[in-house]
Specification:
Blueprint (H helix, E strand, L loop, with lengths): L5 H11 L3 H10 L4 H19 L6 E9 L2 E9 L8 H17 L3 H6 L8 H12 L3 E10 L3 E8 L6 E2 L1 E8 L5 H17 L11 H16 L5 H19 L14 H7 L3 E9 L11 H9 L3
Antiparallel strand pairs: 1-2, 1-5, 2-3, 4-6, 6-7
Length: 302
């Protein structure tokens, strides 16, 4: 049997990212065969990942990446905020965003694509779970494109370029790309990050949400005791106000507090054709752990 040297263990660790003792054990099991040891670690990684698969993943990072007339955004989740500061995890989020830019936003297609390590995205995720020791998941992806113009991206409080907890894409159709148009797109991204619009334009507002709002406004107006004709005008005025709150193109820009987004886009000779906003963990129900109860249980007092 070949000797398992410190250099061999270090080489395996560099190739796999696994712990030192795991690398030594893998080389022992594989009789110092490097490829067999890598396979052994991958098998072990699969086992470890399976044990972690039931844990809630509400932390992690949002990643964005841009290409000509196109941009992609992904959300990759982990169990704790600590993992978001891990450089290997950040690099993986970037890789997933680049893959989405190439293959589109279908998660199965993303997971089946290859990354520079030679693994598929799914296998790379499994490897990362085994290395870091937390459950992780690729939650969602979005890709926007235009025939001509720009798809600008913005990441709020970025940990590094294109990586953070809130990301926005803004697609501006225009005759050509320009620095001014890209700047406008990023400004719209900042606006969207702050205001969280629900729809691009009035026609895109969810009909059910609109009817619920209208019903509430009618009830409120009737409490005033005014005639039905006046109530109808009051409600229509308040519906316009509702649109100004939830429709991106109807909103007043946060940047200057005066201009409507639609007017600014019009002035630039462009058309805003789409946007997307990802906020890390939104809509995920987090587990609330009773830390005192856990300590008591561990101590055998409960």
């Amino acid at each position: 049997m070949a000797e398992i040297t410190a250099a061999l263990v270090r080489e395996l660790r560099e190739k796999t990212g696994a712990g030192m003792m795991d690398c030594k054990k893998a080389l022992t099991e594989a009789a110092a065969d490097m490829e067999a040891a890598i396979d052994w670690l991958r098998t072990k990684g699969l086992s470890q990942a399976a044990k972690k698969s039931g844990r809630t993943t509400a932390e992690g990072l949002v990643g964005v990446v841009s290409g000509p007339n196109r941009a992609a955004m992904v959300e990759v989740n982990a169990e704790t905020d600590f993992v978001g500061r891990n450089e290997a995890f950040q690099a993986f989020v970037e890789q997933v965003a680049h893959v989405a830019l190439e293959v589109g936003e279908d998660l199965e297609a993303i997971k089946a694509a290859k990354v520079p390590s030679g693994r598929t995205v799914a296998d790379e995720l499994t490897h990362l779970i085994a290395t870091i020791g937390e459950n992780m998941s690729i939650r969602r992806a979005r890709v926007l494109s235009v025939e001509s113009g720009v798809v600008a991206s913005y990441v709020h409080s970025a940990l590094r370029p294109g990586i953070g907890k809130i990301g926005v894409l803004a697609a501006l159709q225009a005759p050509s790309e320009s620095d001014a148009l890209l700047t406008l797109g990023r400004q719209i991204g900042m606006h969207v990050a702050a205001t969280r619009p629900a729809a691009l334009d009035v026609a895109s507002v969810d009909p059910e949400a609109l009817e619920r709002e209208r019903a509430v406004l009618i009830d409120q107006a009737r409490d005033s005791g005014k005639p039905e004709a006046i109530i109808e005008k009051m409600v229509e005025g308040r519906i316009r106000k509702f649109y100004e709150e939830v429709v991106l193109l109807e909103q007043v820009r946060v940047l200057d507090g005066e201009s409507r987004v639609a007017k600014v886009v019009d002035k630039a000779g462009a058309k805003l054709v789409g946007f997307e906003r990802f906020q890390l963990g939104e809509g995920i129900e987090k587990e609330e752990n009773d830390f005192a109860a856990e300590v008591a249980a561990a101590a055998g007092t409960k």
